[in-house]
Amino acid sequence: MNLLYFDTSTDWITVQIWNLSNKELLYNFKESCPREASYRLTTEIKKSLVHLQNFKPDLIVIAKGPGSFTGIRIAVTTARNLSQLWNIPCYGIDTLEVYLDYYTQIMKIDTCLVAIDGKMKKYFVRFKDAMKTTNTQDLTLLEMIDKYLKNQDPNFTIISNISMDIQTKVLDINENYPDLKGIILSEKLDFLLDSSISKEYNYTNLIPNYMRGTYVD
Predict the structure, then answer these.
(1) Residue 66 in contact with residue 96, Cβ under 8 Å?
(2) 90 - beta bridge partners?
(3) CB-based contacts of 201: which residues, under 8 Å, 6+ apart?
(4) For the domain with range 96-175, which CATH number is right: 3.20.19.10, 3.40.190.10, 3.30.420.40, 3.40.50.10860?
(5) CA 15 from chain center: how many Å?
(6) Mean pLDDT throughout 81-108?
(7) In whole numbers, what is the pLDDT of the chain averaged over residues?
(8) pLDDT at 214 over 70
């Protein structure tokens, strides 16, 4: 079963094709493309399909937000259209869940906080340590410090797409941009291999996660 994954939650565009049965990456595109998602996403998806001799994927998985309002809208609309056109399932995953999974599994980081720019002086944040993994939250920097940065282990890592005026080590998300790997690929998506289950995830059920009502990009 071949899975088409894409993400336009930030300035980056990610397009991947995975063989879900053996977790083999068949095609991989990741590039910083600020304000280009409206036309680049479909172009890069087309390139991926041509590269694999114009095959049709069996299902679509996307990062459904939060993040850029425009980027999320483009990704969800594209996934819905392709799902309806090809008559295949589509499934959305919280963007920060994908990113946190990538860094904790691929980079072997035990305690990690991923924060992406949410505009309005706020961040979309997700945290994981040995005890817990939080849901994605919409926080100011002060709220983030109060919740997660007090009395942390010196190896605690923050990964973000925006600079922060804090003492804790912050890695640039653009230096190692996340994609669909780790626990999500190896475990969470296994249920989609059951066609009787995956067919329930069609284009009418794919809902964007803006976290806020509306806001300016």
Answers:
(1) yes
(2) 60
(3) 59, 89, 90, 91, 192
(4) 3.30.420.40
(5) 11
(6) 94
(7) 91
(8) no
